[in-house]
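Colleagues,

For the teaching module next term, I've prepared a clean inverse folding example: a structure given as C-alpha coordinates, and then the sequence designed for it. I'd like students to try predicting residues themselves before seeing the answer, so please don't circulate the second half yet.
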Protein backbone atom coordinates (compact mmCIF):
# COMPACT_ATOMS: atom_id res chain seq x y z
CA UNK A 1 0.00 0.00 0.00
CA UNK A 2 1.30 3.46 -0.92
CA UNK A 3 0.74 6.28 1.56
CA UNK A 4 0.62 9.88 0.32
CA UNK A 5 2.47 11.58 3.17
CA UNK A 6 2.10 15.08 1.71
CA UNK A 7 -1.68 14.85 1.55
CA UNK A 8 -1.74 13.35 5.04
CA UNK A 9 0.18 16.32 6.44
CA UNK A 10 -1.99 18.81 4.61
CA UNK A 11 -5.11 17.29 6.15
CA UNK A 12 -3.63 16.92 9.64
CA UNK A 13 -5.39 19.40 11.97
CA UNK A 14 -2.22 19.71 14.08
CA UNK A 15 -0.62 21.76 11.28
CA UNK A 16 -3.68 23.88 10.48
CA UNK A 17 -1.90 27.12 11.46
CA UNK A 18 1.17 26.36 9.35
CA UNK A 19 1.92 26.05 5.63
CA UNK A 20 2.47 22.34 6.29
CA UNK A 21 4.33 19.95 8.53
CA UNK A 22 7.64 21.61 9.54
CA UNK A 23 10.78 19.73 8.62
CA UNK A 24 12.61 21.11 11.67
CA UNK A 25 11.60 22.82 14.89
CA UNK A 26 14.54 24.57 16.54
CA UNK A 27 14.14 26.06 20.01
CA UNK A 28 16.46 28.33 21.97
CA UNK A 29 17.32 27.77 25.62
CA UNK A 30 17.59 31.31 27.04
CA UNK A 31 16.92 34.47 25.05
CA UNK A 32 15.02 37.02 27.19
CA UNK A 33 16.77 39.26 29.68
CA UNK A 34 13.88 38.86 32.13
CA UNK A 35 14.17 35.07 32.04
CA UNK A 36 17.97 35.20 32.31
CA UNK A 37 17.71 37.47 35.35
CA UNK A 38 15.18 35.09 36.88
CA UNK A 39 17.48 32.12 36.27
CA UNK A 40 20.52 34.05 37.49
CA UNK A 41 22.62 33.36 34.42
CA UNK A 42 22.97 35.16 31.12
CA UNK A 43 24.41 33.27 28.13
CA UNK A 44 27.10 34.87 26.00
CA UNK A 45 25.68 33.28 22.84
CA UNK A 46 22.44 31.52 21.92
CA UNK A 47 22.19 27.73 22.28
CA UNK A 48 19.52 25.49 20.84
CA UNK A 49 17.72 22.17 20.86
CA UNK A 50 15.42 20.37 18.43
CA UNK A 51 11.78 19.39 18.89
CA UNK A 52 10.08 16.78 16.70
CA UNK A 53 7.31 17.85 14.35
CA UNK A 54 5.12 15.19 15.99
CA UNK A 55 4.99 17.47 19.05
CA UNK A 56 3.02 20.13 17.14
CA UNK A 57 -0.58 20.74 18.24
CA UNK A 58 -3.29 23.15 17.16
CA UNK A 59 -5.11 25.73 19.23
CA UNK A 60 -7.89 24.18 21.27
CA UNK A 61 -5.99 20.93 21.81
CA UNK A 62 -5.25 19.16 25.07
CA UNK A 63 -1.91 18.12 26.50
CA UNK A 64 -1.42 15.17 28.86
CA UNK A 65 0.53 15.40 32.07
CA UNK A 66 1.83 11.82 32.24
CA UNK A 67 0.89 9.67 35.22
CA UNK A 68 3.43 9.88 38.02
CA UNK A 69 4.71 13.35 37.12
CA UNK A 70 4.14 16.82 38.54
CA UNK A 71 6.14 19.47 36.67
CA UNK A 72 4.52 20.18 33.30
CA UNK A 73 5.62 23.74 32.56
CA UNK A 74 4.32 26.15 29.93
CA UNK A 75 6.44 28.71 28.04
CA UNK A 76 4.74 31.31 25.88
CA UNK A 77 6.92 32.14 22.88
CA UNK A 78 7.15 33.90 19.53
CA UNK A 79 7.48 31.35 16.72
CA UNK A 80 9.07 32.17 13.37
CA UNK A 81 8.06 30.29 10.22
CA UNK A 82 10.74 30.22 7.53
CA UNK A 83 9.76 31.22 4.00
CA UNK A 84 12.65 31.45 1.58
CA UNK A 85 15.36 28.89 2.51
CA UNK A 86 18.26 30.43 4.41
CA UNK A 87 21.87 29.24 4.29
CA UNK A 88 24.70 31.44 5.61
CA UNK A 89 22.58 34.57 5.34
CA UNK A 90 23.85 37.91 6.63
CA UNK A 91 22.25 39.48 9.67
CA UNK A 92 20.92 42.35 7.57
CA UNK A 93 19.13 39.90 5.24
CA UNK A 94 17.96 37.35 7.82
CA UNK A 95 14.48 38.73 8.49
CA UNK A 96 13.60 38.57 4.79
CA UNK A 97 13.73 34.77 5.09
CA UNK A 98 10.94 34.75 7.71
CA UNK A 99 7.54 34.32 6.13
CA UNK A 100 5.33 34.50 9.20
CA UNK A 101 5.16 34.85 12.96
CA UNK A 102 2.77 33.06 15.29
CA UNK A 103 2.25 32.08 18.92
CA UNK A 104 3.84 28.99 20.44
CA UNK A 105 3.75 27.20 23.77
CA UNK A 106 6.99 25.33 24.39
CA UNK A 107 5.73 22.84 26.98
CA UNK A 108 8.29 20.89 28.99
CA UNK A 109 8.09 18.07 31.52
CA UNK A 110 10.73 18.93 34.10
CA UNK A 111 10.41 15.49 35.69
CA UNK A 112 12.36 14.16 32.67
CA UNK A 113 14.69 17.13 32.27
CA UNK A 114 17.72 16.07 34.31
CA UNK A 115 18.58 12.91 32.38
CA UNK A 116 18.21 14.66 29.02
CA UNK A 117 19.85 17.90 30.16
CA UNK A 118 20.38 20.21 27.21
CA UNK A 119 18.92 17.95 24.53
CA UNK A 120 15.38 18.02 26.00
CA UNK A 121 14.52 15.05 23.79
CA UNK A 122 11.99 13.53 26.17
CA UNK A 123 11.20 16.49 28.40
CA UNK A 124 10.05 18.67 25.48
CA UNK A 125 9.44 16.22 22.67
CA UNK A 126 6.16 14.67 23.77
CA UNK A 127 3.00 14.62 21.67
CA UNK A 128 1.22 17.96 21.95
CA UNK A 129 4.21 19.72 23.54
CA UNK A 130 4.45 22.38 20.79
CA UNK A 131 1.08 24.07 20.24
CA UNK A 132 1.28 26.67 17.43
CA UNK A 133 -1.17 29.24 16.07
CA UNK A 134 -4.00 29.87 15.65
CA UNK A 135 -3.17 32.54 13.03
CA UNK A 136 -0.10 33.75 11.13
CA UNK A 137 1.24 37.31 11.09
CA UNK A 138 2.90 38.36 7.83
CA UNK A 139 6.54 38.95 8.81
CA UNK A 140 7.03 41.40 5.93
CA UNK A 141 4.53 43.84 7.46
CA UNK A 142 6.11 44.15 10.92
CA UNK A 143 9.26 45.32 12.66
CA UNK A 144 10.74 42.25 14.46
CA UNK A 145 11.53 44.37 17.53
CA UNK A 146 7.89 45.39 18.06
CA UNK A 147 6.41 41.95 18.71
CA UNK A 148 4.76 41.23 22.04
CA UNK A 149 4.16 37.84 23.68
CA UNK A 150 1.63 37.33 26.48
CA UNK A 151 0.53 34.21 28.36
CA UNK A 152 -2.54 33.66 30.52
CA UNK A 153 -3.04 30.84 33.03
CA UNK A 154 -6.71 30.29 33.78
CA UNK A 155 -7.41 33.86 32.67
CA UNK A 156 -4.63 35.52 34.69
CA UNK A 157 -1.86 37.28 32.77
CA UNK A 158 1.43 35.63 33.82
CA UNK A 159 3.83 36.54 31.00
CA UNK A 160 4.09 39.89 29.23
CA UNK A 161 7.23 40.88 27.33
CA UNK A 162 8.37 42.02 23.93
CA UNK A 163 11.01 41.05 21.42
CA UNK A 164 12.84 44.25 22.31
CA UNK A 165 13.63 42.62 25.66
CA UNK A 166 15.52 39.74 24.08
CA UNK A 167 19.25 39.22 24.61
CA UNK A 168 19.51 37.86 21.07
CA UNK A 169 17.22 39.61 18.61
CA UNK A 170 15.08 37.63 16.21
CA UNK A 171 17.08 38.20 12.99
CA UNK A 172 20.25 37.12 14.81
CA UNK A 173 18.72 33.72 15.57
CA UNK A 174 17.90 33.17 11.90
CA UNK A 175 21.35 34.27 10.73
CA UNK A 176 23.12 32.22 13.41
CA UNK A 177 21.26 29.01 12.68
CA UNK A 178 21.78 29.45 8.94
CA UNK A 179 25.54 29.28 9.55
CA UNK A 180 25.19 25.64 10.59
CA UNK A 181 22.47 24.19 8.36
CA UNK A 182 19.89 25.20 5.81
CA UNK A 183 16.68 26.61 7.22
CA UNK A 184 14.07 25.25 4.84
CA UNK A 185 10.65 26.52 3.92
CA UNK A 186 8.19 25.72 6.70
CA UNK A 187 10.83 25.22 9.41
CA UNK A 188 9.86 26.73 12.76
CA UNK A 189 12.10 28.58 15.22
CA UNK A 190 10.89 28.88 18.82
CA UNK A 191 12.57 32.01 20.11
CA UNK A 192 12.52 31.52 23.88
CA UNK A 193 10.28 32.53 26.72
CA UNK A 194 10.33 35.54 29.05
CA UNK A 195 9.99 35.47 32.84
CA UNK A 196 6.71 34.15 34.20
CA UNK A 197 6.81 30.60 32.86
CA UNK A 198 5.39 28.23 35.44
CA UNK A 199 3.65 24.90 36.04
CA UNK A 200 0.20 23.88 34.80
CA UNK A 201 -1.84 21.00 36.19
CA UNK A 202 -4.83 19.01 35.03
CA UNK A 203 -7.78 21.29 34.32
CA UNK A 204 -5.62 24.38 33.77
CA UNK A 205 -6.05 26.37 30.58
CA UNK A 206 -3.02 28.14 29.09
CA UNK A 207 -3.40 30.83 26.43
CA UNK A 208 -0.60 32.49 24.44
CA UNK A 209 -0.89 35.44 22.07
CA UNK A 210 1.71 37.14 19.90
CA UNK A 211 0.90 40.54 18.45
CA UNK A 212 2.10 43.99 17.54
CA UNK A 213 0.28 46.26 20.00
CA UNK A 214 -2.42 48.03 18.01
CA UNK A 215 -1.59 45.88 14.98
CA UNK A 216 -1.82 42.30 13.73
CA UNK A 217 -2.20 39.39 16.12
CA UNK A 218 -1.87 35.62 16.07
CA UNK A 219 -5.01 35.26 18.12
CA UNK A 220 -5.00 33.28 21.34
CA UNK A 221 -3.43 29.84 21.27
CA UNK A 222 -5.43 27.77 23.77
CA UNK A 223 -4.27 24.53 25.39
CA UNK A 224 -5.96 22.57 28.18
CA UNK A 225 -4.00 20.26 30.47
CA UNK A 226 -5.47 16.83 31.20
CA UNK A 227 -4.24 14.02 33.45
CA UNK A 228 -2.69 11.08 31.68
CA UNK A 229 -3.27 7.54 32.88
CA UNK A 230 -0.16 5.82 31.53
CA UNK A 231 3.07 5.87 33.53
CA UNK A 232 6.59 5.48 32.14
CA UNK A 233 8.15 2.03 32.05
CA UNK A 234 11.40 1.98 34.03
CA UNK A 235 12.50 -1.20 32.26
CA UNK A 236 12.79 0.77 29.02
CA UNK A 237 14.55 3.88 30.27
CA UNK A 238 15.14 6.20 33.20
CA UNK A 239 12.06 7.18 35.18
CA UNK A 240 10.91 10.71 36.03
CA UNK A 241 13.00 12.20 38.84
CA UNK A 242 11.77 15.29 40.64
CA UNK A 243 14.01 17.46 42.81
CA UNK A 244 14.03 20.94 44.27
CA UNK A 245 16.21 22.32 41.48
CA UNK A 246 13.70 21.19 38.87
CA UNK A 247 10.79 22.40 41.01
CA UNK A 248 12.36 25.83 41.33
CA UNK A 249 13.12 26.17 37.62
CA UNK A 250 9.73 24.80 36.55
CA UNK A 251 7.74 27.07 38.86
CA UNK A 252 10.06 30.04 38.38
CA UNK A 253 11.14 30.49 42.02
CA UNK A 254 11.45 28.61 45.30
CA UNK A 255 8.55 30.63 46.68
CA UNK A 256 6.27 29.75 43.79
CA UNK A 257 7.25 26.09 44.17
CA UNK A 258 6.28 26.15 47.87
CA UNK A 259 9.86 25.57 49.01
CA UNK A 260 11.52 27.22 52.01
CA UNK A 261 13.82 30.15 51.27
CA UNK A 262 17.39 29.07 50.64
CA UNK A 263 19.73 30.53 53.23
CA UNK A 264 22.55 30.90 50.72
CA UNK A 265 20.54 33.12 48.37
CA UNK A 266 22.03 36.60 48.33
CA UNK A 267 21.64 39.53 45.92
CA UNK A 268 25.22 39.03 44.76
CA UNK A 269 24.80 35.34 43.95
CA UNK A 270 25.73 34.44 40.42
CA UNK A 271 23.14 31.76 39.81
CA UNK A 272 20.09 31.88 42.07
CA UNK A 273 18.25 28.75 40.88
CA UNK A 274 21.42 26.77 41.10
CA UNK A 275 21.38 26.99 44.87
CA UNK A 276 18.14 25.21 45.33
CA UNK A 277 18.97 21.54 45.73
CA UNK A 278 19.52 18.76 43.26
CA UNK A 279 18.07 15.72 44.93
CA UNK A 280 17.09 12.86 42.67
CA UNK A 281 14.56 11.10 44.85
CA UNK A 282 12.44 9.62 42.09
CA UNK A 283 8.73 9.92 42.74
CA UNK A 284 9.01 11.97 45.92
CA UNK A 285 6.53 14.81 46.11
CA UNK A 286 7.14 18.12 47.83
CA UNK A 287 5.17 16.98 50.86
CA UNK A 288 7.24 13.80 51.17
CA UNK A 289 10.56 15.56 51.42
CA UNK A 290 12.19 16.74 54.67
CA UNK A 291 12.20 20.51 55.08
CA UNK A 292 15.41 21.92 56.50
CA UNK A 293 15.26 24.90 58.83
CA UNK A 294 16.32 28.25 57.46
CA UNK A 295 19.87 29.17 58.34
CA UNK A 296 21.51 32.58 58.55
CA UNK A 297 23.60 33.84 55.67
CA UNK A 298 27.37 33.56 56.06
CA UNK A 299 28.26 37.24 56.01
CA UNK A 300 31.63 38.56 54.89
CA UNK A 301 32.39 39.59 58.47
CA UNK A 302 31.61 36.14 59.87
CA UNK A 303 33.57 34.46 57.08
CA UNK A 304 36.59 36.61 57.98
CA UNK A 305 36.33 35.58 61.63
CA UNK A 306 36.15 31.90 60.73
CA UNK A 307 39.10 32.22 58.37
CA UNK A 308 41.12 33.73 61.22
CA UNK A 309 40.09 31.09 63.75
CA UNK A 310 41.83 27.67 63.70
CA UNK A 311 39.70 24.55 63.59
CA UNK A 312 41.31 23.42 66.85
CA UNK A 313 39.96 26.48 68.63
CA UNK A 314 36.59 26.27 66.94
CA UNK A 315 36.17 22.60 67.83
CA UNK A 316 37.08 23.35 71.45
CA UNK A 317 34.34 25.95 71.61
CA UNK A 318 31.85 23.55 70.06
CA UNK A 319 32.71 20.92 72.66
CA UNK A 320 32.11 23.49 75.42
CA UNK A 321 28.62 23.89 74.00
CA UNK A 322 27.93 20.17 73.96
CA UNK A 323 28.78 19.44 70.32
CA UNK A 324 31.15 16.47 70.33
CA UNK A 325 30.47 15.09 66.82
CA UNK A 326 31.57 17.99 64.69
CA UNK A 327 34.66 16.36 63.14
CA UNK A 328 34.93 15.01 59.60
CA UNK A 329 37.47 12.31 60.38
CA UNK A 330 40.19 10.89 58.16
CA UNK A 331 40.53 13.66 55.58
CA UNK A 332 43.60 15.75 54.74
CA UNK A 333 44.19 18.66 52.39
CA UNK A 334 45.69 18.34 48.91
CA UNK A 335 47.30 21.79 49.22
CA UNK A 336 49.74 22.75 51.96
CA UNK A 337 48.31 25.49 54.15
CA UNK A 338 44.83 25.21 52.68
CA UNK A 339 42.01 26.85 54.62
CA UNK A 340 38.39 26.52 53.60
CA UNK A 341 35.34 28.26 55.02
CA UNK A 342 31.86 28.16 53.57
CA UNK A 343 28.31 26.87 53.75
CA UNK A 344 27.93 23.23 52.77
CA UNK A 345 26.44 22.04 49.51
CA UNK A 346 25.97 18.32 49.97
CA UNK A 347 26.21 15.32 47.65
CA UNK A 348 25.47 11.71 48.53
CA UNK A 349 26.66 8.55 46.82
CA UNK A 350 25.06 5.18 47.49
CA UNK A 351 26.86 1.83 47.07
CA UNK A 352 27.28 0.67 43.51
CA UNK A 353 24.50 -1.44 42.03
CA UNK A 354 24.33 -2.15 38.33
CA UNK A 355 20.70 -1.23 37.71
CA UNK A 356 20.90 1.91 39.83
CA UNK A 357 24.08 3.10 38.16
CA UNK A 358 22.49 2.54 34.77
CA UNK A 359 19.54 4.73 35.78
CA UNK A 360 21.38 7.38 37.79
CA UNK A 361 25.07 7.18 36.96
CA UNK A 362 25.16 8.48 33.42
CA UNK A 363 24.07 11.69 31.76
CA UNK A 364 23.55 14.83 33.79
CA UNK A 365 23.61 12.97 37.09
CA UNK A 366 23.44 14.27 40.65
CA UNK A 367 27.22 14.61 40.92
CA UNK A 368 27.42 16.80 37.82
CA UNK A 369 24.42 18.86 38.87
CA UNK A 370 25.96 19.63 42.26
CA UNK A 371 29.25 20.75 40.71
CA UNK A 372 27.33 22.82 38.15
CA UNK A 373 25.21 24.36 40.89
CA UNK A 374 27.77 25.20 43.58
CA UNK A 375 27.77 28.92 44.33
CA UNK A 376 30.66 31.21 45.10
CA UNK A 377 32.08 30.58 48.55
CA UNK A 378 30.29 27.26 49.10
CA UNK A 379 31.99 24.00 50.09
CA UNK A 380 30.91 20.78 48.37
CA UNK A 381 30.73 18.00 50.96
CA UNK A 382 30.51 14.44 49.62
CA UNK A 383 29.29 11.35 51.43
CA UNK A 384 31.25 8.39 50.05
CA UNK A 385 30.79 6.16 53.13
CA UNK A 386 34.52 6.43 53.91
CA UNK A 387 35.37 4.32 50.84
CA UNK A 388 38.65 5.59 49.42
CA UNK A 389 39.04 2.81 46.84
CA UNK A 390 37.68 4.94 44.01
CA UNK A 391 37.56 8.58 43.03
CA UNK A 392 34.65 10.83 43.95
CA UNK A 393 35.77 13.74 41.77
CA UNK A 394 38.45 14.43 39.19
CA UNK A 395 40.10 17.31 37.41
CA UNK A 396 37.14 18.30 35.19
CA UNK A 397 34.72 18.62 38.10
CA UNK A 398 37.37 20.32 40.21
CA UNK A 399 37.87 22.84 37.44
CA UNK A 400 34.12 23.41 37.26
CA UNK A 401 33.93 23.99 41.02
CA UNK A 402 36.91 26.34 40.88
CA UNK A 403 35.36 28.28 38.00
CA UNK A 404 32.10 28.60 39.93
CA UNK A 405 34.03 30.08 42.86
CA UNK A 406 33.63 27.18 45.29
CA UNK A 407 35.65 27.49 48.48
CA UNK A 408 36.64 23.83 48.29
CA UNK A 409 35.54 20.20 48.42
CA UNK A 410 35.43 17.75 51.32
CA UNK A 411 34.98 14.05 50.60
CA UNK A 412 35.42 10.98 52.75
CA UNK A 413 36.36 9.10 49.57
CA UNK A 414 39.20 9.26 47.08
CA UNK A 415 40.22 11.82 44.50
CA UNK A 416 41.02 10.90 40.91
CA UNK A 417 43.55 12.98 38.94
CA UNK A 418 44.92 14.03 42.32
CA UNK A 419 47.94 15.99 41.02
CA UNK A 420 45.88 17.71 38.33
CA UNK A 421 43.27 18.73 40.89
CA UNK A 422 46.02 20.21 43.05
CA UNK A 423 47.39 22.15 40.07
CA UNK A 424 43.92 23.64 39.50
CA UNK A 425 44.28 25.17 42.95
CA UNK A 426 40.99 23.95 44.39
CA UNK A 427 41.40 22.98 48.07
CA UNK A 428 40.18 19.40 48.47
CA UNK A 429 40.12 17.52 51.76
CA UNK A 430 39.92 13.79 51.07
CA UNK A 431 41.17 10.36 52.12
CA UNK A 432 43.76 10.46 49.35
CA UNK A 433 44.33 9.63 45.70
CA UNK A 434 42.81 6.78 43.74
CA UNK A 435 42.81 6.23 39.96
CA UNK A 436 39.44 4.49 39.63
CA UNK A 437 36.31 6.10 38.25
CA UNK A 438 33.11 6.71 40.16
CA UNK A 439 31.21 3.67 38.88
CA UNK A 440 33.55 1.21 40.60
CA UNK A 441 31.96 1.71 44.01
CA UNK A 442 29.40 4.54 43.91
CA UNK A 443 26.13 5.68 42.38
CA UNK A 444 25.62 9.47 42.43
CA UNK A 445 22.25 9.65 44.12
CA UNK A 446 21.18 13.06 45.43
CA UNK A 447 22.33 16.48 46.51
CA UNK A 448 21.34 19.17 48.98
CA UNK A 449 20.17 16.64 51.56
CA UNK A 450 21.45 15.72 54.99
CA UNK A 451 24.47 13.42 54.64
CA UNK A 452 27.13 11.66 56.73
CA UNK A 453 30.73 12.51 55.83
CA UNK A 454 33.66 11.14 57.80
CA UNK A 455 31.43 10.32 60.73
CA UNK A 456 29.83 13.78 60.91
CA UNK A 457 26.31 14.75 59.98
CA UNK A 458 26.27 17.60 57.46
CA UNK A 459 23.19 19.52 56.39
CA UNK A 460 22.97 21.95 53.48
CA UNK A 461 23.97 25.36 54.82
CA UNK A 462 26.05 24.05 57.72
CA UNK A 463 29.29 25.99 58.06
CA UNK A 464 32.34 23.94 57.06
CA UNK A 465 35.82 25.00 58.21
CA UNK A 466 38.99 23.15 57.29
CA UNK A 467 42.71 23.67 57.82
CA UNK A 468 45.84 21.64 58.59
CA UNK A 469 44.23 20.12 61.69
CA UNK A 470 41.23 18.79 59.77
CA UNK A 471 37.65 19.72 58.95
CA UNK A 472 34.78 20.57 61.30
CA UNK A 473 31.08 21.26 60.81
CA UNK A 474 29.43 24.13 62.69
CA UNK A 475 25.65 24.55 63.04
CA UNK A 476 24.92 27.94 61.42
CA UNK A 477 23.11 29.27 64.48
CA UNK A 478 26.29 28.80 66.56
CA UNK A 479 28.82 30.05 64.03
CA UNK A 480 29.09 33.67 65.20
CA UNK A 481 29.23 32.77 68.86
CA UNK A 482 31.80 30.03 68.34
CA UNK A 483 33.96 32.20 66.08
CA UNK A 484 34.04 35.06 68.60
CA UNK A 485 34.87 32.69 71.45
CA UNK A 486 37.60 30.93 69.44
CA UNK A 487 39.25 34.22 68.50
CA UNK A 488 39.13 35.38 72.11
CA UNK A 489 40.75 32.13 73.17
CA UNK A 490 43.38 32.53 70.46
CA UNK A 491 44.30 35.95 71.84
CA UNK A 492 44.53 34.48 75.34
CA UNK A 493 46.65 31.55 74.14
CA UNK A 494 48.99 33.94 72.32
CA UNK A 495 49.47 35.91 75.55
CA UNK A 496 50.15 32.68 77.47
CA UNK A 497 52.69 31.64 74.83
CA UNK A 498 54.53 34.91 75.32
CA UNK A 499 54.72 34.26 79.10
CA UNK A 500 55.99 30.72 78.53
CA UNK A 501 58.61 32.11 76.14
CA UNK A 502 59.68 34.45 78.95
CA UNK A 503 60.45 31.37 81.08
CA UNK A 504 57.32 31.05 83.21
CA UNK A 505 56.17 27.47 84.03
CA UNK A 506 52.89 26.32 82.52
CA UNK A 507 51.49 25.34 85.93
CA UNK A 508 48.88 27.94 86.78
CA UNK A 509 49.46 29.68 83.48
CA UNK A 510 47.91 27.12 81.15
CA UNK A 511 45.07 27.26 81.89
CA UNK A 512 45.10 30.59 83.70
CA UNK A 513 44.63 30.48 87.46
CA UNK A 514 43.05 33.38 89.32
CA UNK A 515 46.32 35.30 89.66
CA UNK A 516 47.32 34.97 86.05
CA UNK A 517 43.74 35.64 84.96
CA UNK A 518 43.69 38.92 86.80
CA UNK A 519 46.99 39.92 85.21
CA UNK A 520 45.77 38.97 81.74
CA UNK A 521 42.49 40.86 82.18
CA UNK A 522 44.33 43.91 83.38
CA UNK A 523 46.67 43.91 80.40
CA UNK A 524 43.77 43.34 78.04
CA UNK A 525 41.94 46.31 79.58
CA UNK A 526 44.96 48.50 78.86
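(Answer key — instructors only)
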Amino acid sequence: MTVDIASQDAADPRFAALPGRPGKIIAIHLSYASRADQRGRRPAAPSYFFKPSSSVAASGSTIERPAGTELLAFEGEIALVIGEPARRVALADAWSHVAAVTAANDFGLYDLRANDKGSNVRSKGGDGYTPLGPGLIDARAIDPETLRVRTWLNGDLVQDDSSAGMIFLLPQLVADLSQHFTLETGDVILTGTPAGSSVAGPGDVVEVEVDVPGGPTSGRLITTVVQGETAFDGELGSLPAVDDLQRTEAWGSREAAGLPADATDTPSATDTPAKTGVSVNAGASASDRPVLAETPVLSDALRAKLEAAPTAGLSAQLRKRGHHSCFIDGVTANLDGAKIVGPARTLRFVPFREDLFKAHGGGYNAQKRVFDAVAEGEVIVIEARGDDTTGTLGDILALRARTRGAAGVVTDGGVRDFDAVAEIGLPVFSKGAHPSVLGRKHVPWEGDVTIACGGATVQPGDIVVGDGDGVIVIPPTLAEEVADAALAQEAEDAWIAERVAEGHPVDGLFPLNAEWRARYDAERER
